[in-house]
Amino acid sequence: MTDPGNVLRIFEEISRIPRCSGNEEQAARWFERRAAARGWASRRDAAGNLLIRVPASPGRERAPAVVLQAHLDMVCEKTPDSPHDFTRDPLRLVREGDWLRAEGTTLGADNGAGLALAAALAEREALDHPPLELLFTVDEETGLSGAKRLEPGFLTGRLLVNLDSETEGVFTVGCAGGVESRIGLPLERQAEPAGGVRRALVVGGLRGGHSGIDIHRPRANAIRILARLLDEVADLPGAAVFALAGGSRRNAIARDARAEIACRPEDEGPLAQRLAEAAERLRGLYAEETGIFCRLGPPAAPPPGERPLARPFLRRALDLLLALPHGALLPEAGFEGLVHSSANLAVVETAAAGLTVVTSQRSLSREGLAEASSRVRAAAALAGARVSFEAEYPPWTPDPDSALLSRCRRVYSRCFGSEGRVRAIHAGLECAWIGAIYPGMDMVSVGPTTENAHSPSERLHLPSLTRLEAFLAALLADLASA
Predict the structure, then answer these.
(1) Do the Cβ atoms of 403 and 442 come closer than 8 Å?
(2) Hey, how many other C-beta atoms are within 10 angstroms of the C-beta on 141?
(3) Residue 461 belongs to what H/E stretch?
(4) Which stretches does DSSP call E strand in 205-338?
(5) What's the confidence (pLDDT) of residue 104?
(6) Three-state SS for 464?
């Protein structure tokens, strides 16, 4: 079994570097300096993707080059009470037994673990390996745009191991395509200011999670819950709603949502009780949402003379949020337990110009993607809202004849006594774009066990990281002898 020390050291070092999507420059420079210190050539393309070329072990120069691919950026989510500043603060790593997490924030094992594995394998002097290309892409988490903008001649290798999967012992050979929807509803406010007591209606304590990997789980969506609760608030005499907001990322299930409201003083106590009862019912409905809460809190400072949302507008907005599809829409027949098509009600926010809603749709087929998007378009049309579709990416269709997959399973069996499992996933992987730009690229995706990606509950299973490094070292040695 390999020593995981260098992998963990590299992961700890890059965890000190801010690398939210769109802010990967410092991380890229860190890897460039590390490569230069070892005499390895590196270059970047117009998108900012980094390629490091590692010479083969002596005598292995004629072996086919292998691409080890991971992405530089991470989802930057934190708990509501966390003071963490993702633009400058290092992550605070916490080890709990066999698991590693971050204090109050996402861990960034998606995809920092992949970056660390690729670098550690390349740096192992005793490892027998073919020519390696370390491809570290940018902006994966906000639309796969780095992979989408890869240049056709950037890579020479035609065997690619993507390091962005999240379950040990699983070989991923296909993924869903996706598209993002942006819905706009022009704002309408009442002519007169509202009286009463200003409060914030807050929904929180939800699990959240990845909008593809976790979309089938019995978890609630904070935006949907907020809309249901506001449906009741709107019926109270003298009640008013000024703004609503929820969610933060198109690829994360909304964990938190809030609305700025006003109510009569005599209604505040009964409303608080109704919210507590609603939270209790929701905990019974959603098996994984044991920490959910719905309550009144202190309001945000209102702009001078702020007027409440007009009731007809509020009715259309709530109907839209309740009608938009969310969750698994169609199961996949080819792989047990896999979702074929889904939708995620991701973000809602109120601004001066209007209400904006962001959703994301995923499917293993282009037809499924079109069907899910048509449901979003229909809900928006019924509410009188505008809708646009963007950030579309293709599905990665499984190749049953993959020679790389066969090699992976054979080596895995030698290492651990089983061939591992083969699957496709209901999430976007950069392999979809890489395969479109490099036809014929033979690809497999692997990764250590990571739970609750894209949320502050994210954690990395360290023994699985150790075993994955051992497997990858054996695979590279096997490919070097090809």
Answers:
(1) yes
(2) 24
(3) strand 459-461
(4) 240-246, 257-263, 293-297, 327-331
(5) 97
(6) helix
Amino acid (1-letter code) at residue 387: V
Which CATH number applies to 178-393?
3.30.70.360
Kindly name the residue from 73, 180, 214, 458 that is annotated as catalytic.
73
- pLDDT digits 0-9 by tens, 222-239: 999 999 999 989 889 989
The rounded distance, in Å, linking the Cα atoms of 246 and 347 is: 6
Q: Read off the pLDDT of residues 441-461 as tens digits, 9 standing for 90 and up.
A: 999 999 999 999 988 999 999
Please give the CATH architecture assigned to the domain spanning 4-175+396-481.
Answer: 3-Layer(aba) Sandwich (3.40)
Q: What's the N-to-C CA distance of the chain in angstroms?
A: 23
The pair phi, psi for residue 390, each rounded to 5°, is -150, 175
CA gap 334, 173 in Å, rounded: 13
Q: What residues does CATH 3.30.70.360 cover in the chain?
A: 178-393
Mean pLDDT, the chain, rounded, equals 95
114, 70 contact by CB (below 8 A): yes
Active site residue 140: yes
| Spatial contact of 169 and 453, defined as CB atoms under 8 Å apart | no
Domain with CATH 3.40.630.10 in the chain: 4-175+396-481
Confidence at residue 4, expressed as pLDDT on a 0 to 100 scale: 57
Mark out the alpha helices in 131-182 (DSSP H runs).
145-148
The answer, yes or no, to whether residue 192 has pLDDT greater than 90, is: no
Per DSSP, helices labelled H in 85-144 are: 109-123
Question: Beta strand pairing status for 170-175 and 421-425?
Answer: parallel
DSSP 415-436: HHSS--EEEEESS--THHHHHH
Say if residues 54 and 40 touch (Cβ distance below 8 Å): yes
Cα angle, residue 193 at apex, residues 188 and 197 outer, rounded to 5°: 115
* Rounded (10°) angle between helices 109-123 and 5-14: 130
Please report the DSSP string for 208-238 in residue order: --BTTTTTTSS---HHHHHHHHHHHHTTSTT
- Give the list of residues 6+ apart from residue 127 with CB closer than 8 angstroms, or none: 57, 121, 473, 476, 477
Which residue among 24, 140, 260, 267 is the active-site one?
A: 140
Residue 96 is among the residues annotated as catalytic for this protein: no
